[in-house]
Amino acid sequence: MTTHPSTHPSKIAILPGDGIGPEIMAQAVRVLEALGESFEMERADVGGAGYAAHGHPLPESTLKLAKEADAVLFGAVGDYQYDTLERALRPEQAILGLRKELGLFANLRPAILYPELAGASTLKPEVVSGLDILIIRELTGDIYFGKPRGVRECPDGPFKGQREGFDTMRYAEGEIRRIAHVAFQAAQKRDKRVTSVDKANVLETFQFWRDIVTDVHKEYQDVELEHMYVDNAAMQLVRAPKKFDVIVTGNMFGDILSDAAAMLTGSIGMLPSASLDANNKGLYEPSHGSAPDIAGKGIANPLATILSAAMMLRFSLNKPEQAERVEAAVKRVLQQGLRTADIFEDGTQRVSTEQMGDAVVRALG
Ligand code: IPM
Ligand code: MG
Q1: In this prediction, what percent of the chain has a pLDDT beyond 90?
Q2: Which residue from 171, 177, 187 is spatially nearest to 226, judged by alpha carbons?
Q3: pTM
Q4: Annotated active-site positions, please?
Q5: Least buried of 83, 118, 245, 323, by fewest C-beta within 10 Å?
């Protein structure tokens, strides 16, 4: 646990990013300000906005701020106009760079179905009602960062001599151990069940993963461990998602499964996430993207960002009671029937991004 000298207010790096990022971040900042704590919040450009202002998606000054802050609150990155840039300058590099540079190896993505939003899921209510799963995705290893990678002349096989693209999937023992510990410890605070998702039937990397997770499990005999292949896990997630408690998996599989899990709730606009380092310093961001198609219209749902701020209060700023206040306020506005366009249903009241922020601030009590 990070400790903060009580004389200094916690410093939060505010990185709104692109698309709807600035709109939803503005509401999260208002909620933080309304808590009556003295946070030091400093804003910086990231993603396309970083490129536009400083020529790089993760400008030096932004990285420096993120490193010196106690926590990072991140909006979303990406916009059509940057799609044709070379890979190293694209907005996504900002979030990948922050994960790597800050050592944020543990990505926590809860998928919770709020009872008020049961109708929003595309699955039958009985399949998803009461859903509460936590996906723990390893975030700084795997094929995402493995080297070598690139385009080269194919060295063998039937396509020898042609150009080929290649990446490297790899996991070091210590990398697997530390994420397994995070998963088992998270499960101890929940329903005490971990499903480790791999592809041990095909991939060396993931047979090794399975062996190491099994070994770490010896230290957590109060937690039940199950191994599951990723294709089956994808199927079970839409067939009987409530069977899961904590899912732990690698970077690539976690990317895919967490989007599927988010969609079970029908409201990706509601889901927060945390990316933590070894000391619980973290970056907090909504699970959804920058949605450039609706940017500037005042219709985006700020709740995932507000709930990300709540996770930040809990995990990095050591203020669990304030985290609960924010989460309770979000539940209250849902009970009041307030909905942004993405979660609107007949019989509820459609509100703008800002009105939703207003309502949460009022509901803080
Ligand atoms: C995510 C996103 C990122 C990822 C992209 C934007 C690089 O899809 O956070 O899940 O693949 O990790
Ligand atoms: Mg993703």
Answers
A1: 90
A2: 187
A3: 0.92
A4: 144, 199, 231, 255, 259
A5: 83
